[in-house]
Amino acid sequence: MASITNIRSGLATRLATITGLRTAATMPDNPNPPIAIVIPDNINFDNAFQRGMDTLTFRIFLVVGRADERTAQNSLDAYCATTGTSSIKAAIEGDKTLGGSAYNCRVTDMRNYGSVLIGEVTYLSCEFVVAVYA
Hints:
It is elongated, with a radius of gyration of 15 Å. 22% of the residues lie in helices and 38% in strands. Strands 1-2-3-5-4 form a 5-stranded mixed sheet. The longest helix has 12 residues, at 4-15. The protein is α+β, with helices and mostly antiparallel strands. The chain has one domain: 2-Layer Sandwich (STM4215-like).
């Protein structure tokens, strides 16, 4: 199996190609939006014969500020697009090997679009699911 640390770093590197988006390969104590946080979620071992491949699932937790509701939603919508300079999907899939850490990867889902309370502040957020084949 490929290193979870290397894959997490590869995902954060790809996300950092989005101008103005902060990234975190590990969970920060106090996120500073807009930020994309890479979180390991699940590992499905032995998808190919003789330990040839595992499938790792990561969540990208995206948080944007909510000072102005309309602006926050427009910002989040741009990150959710399938193409464009702010697209999470396009950024990650721009190098499907994540710098050589994986055979392939793809963003499969966007979910949980809505408000989230972090500390005492309400933000707008969503999650992306990334399947990594390594």
